[in-house]
Design goal:
Layout (H helix, E strand, L loop, with lengths): L19 E6 L5 E5 L5 E3 L5 H11 L13 H15 L7 E5 L5 H8 L3 E6 L2 H11 L2 E4 L12 E7 L8 H11 E12 L4 H11 L17 E2 L2 H12 L1 E8 L4 E2 L2 E2 L12 E8 L1
Parallel strand pairs: 4-5, 4-7, 5-6, 7-8
Antiparallel strand pairs: 1-2, 2-3, 3-9, 8-13, 10-13, 11-12
Helix pairs in contact: 2-3
């Protein structure tokens, strides 16, 4: 697919600040901007809606390298079960809404664990097939424009999703509307300031890597987060209090995720958050 881009953005996609600067460019020539207010980094200019529509129409089924659903389903079940067990430390099962449901493993696990489950995906055909397969209510299209009941859901679940949309700030505002007071938002996303990426950035600075900035994954990711700064802006602008913040662990043994006490030190490639709506 050939890239196509919008006009250059003049505001941050998370905090809406105009205090943004051109930060770097990756090996494909895609520009990355940084917000000096909330320190989020984002692609600028961003892909057009048409490009993204075409991309997501094939995203679930095409065997991209490093595709997030390219592995065996059993580890994915274990990972979602671990995530939802973590959520259950803070709230009892109720209405569960999955954003970016993917292959539906998260929804299947949540339902198995006693939640009343609904979900959302972008592509219409894929979503309808998945809803029929799982016998669940699902929505598709533009998440921000969906007609969803205010303060209906006890938990909104976003597992490696918030890095994908063009308008993550609008997603977060919508989530704040549909979550009940005291409801839980679960987010997992790549850590743009992980230990490995810091090393790669240093190597980039000395011209020691062929694919500068490849860790931005600009073929699919549009926004890039530091866990601590993201936690701050989620509280300040969107009213979400961070209850849990740790590495997003991917090591699985005998069907269980291998968490450890070291996971509070956010050095790995991804992080996960459990947040409560005030």
């Amino acid at each position: 697919m050939n890239y196509s881009f919008d006009e250059l953005l003049t505001r941050c996609t998370i905090c809406n600040s105009e205090n943004i600067v051109n930060y770097t460019v990756d090996h494909k020539g895609i520009q990355i901007y940084k917000c000096n207010n909330c320190e989020v980094k984002f692609m600028n200019p961003q892909f057009t809606d048409q490009y993204l529509s075409d991309f997501y129409a094939q995203y679930q089924n095409k065997d991209f390298k490093h595709h997030r659903y390219g592995d065996d389903k059993n580890p994915r079940f274990a990972k979602h079960r671990d995530n939802i067990n973590l959520i259950s430390q803070y709230i009892s099962p109720g209405n569960f809404f999955s954003i970016g449901s993917g292959n539906g493993f998260d929804m299947a696990v949540a339902r198995e664990m006693g939640w009343r489950v609904e979900g959302f995906e972008v592509d219409e055909d894929f979503t309808k097939k998945l809803a029929a397969e799982l016998d669940l209510k699902m929505f598709f299209g533009d998440f921000v424009k969906l007609s969803l009941e205010n303060e209906k859901y006890d938990c909104v679940y976003m597992n490696h999703v918030i890095e994908h949309p063009k308008n993550p700030g609008e997603y977060l505002s919508k989530i704040a509307q549909i979550l009940k007071k005291g409801g839980i938002l679960y987010i997992a996303t790549p850590n743009i300031d992980s230990l490995s990426i810091k090393l790669k950035k240093a190597m980039d600075a000395f011209g020691l890597r062929k694919k500068k900035g490849s860790y931005y994954d600009t073929w699919q990711h549009l926004t890039y987060y530091n866990p601590y700064r993201f936690s701050e802006i989620l509280k300040k602008k969107y009213g979400f209090e961070t209850l849990h913040l740790s590495n997003d662990v991917k090591q699985i043994k005998d069907g269980k995720v291998q968490n450890s006490a070291m996971d509070k030190f956010l050095y790995k490639s991804g992080f996960r958050m459990v947040l409560r709506k005030h």
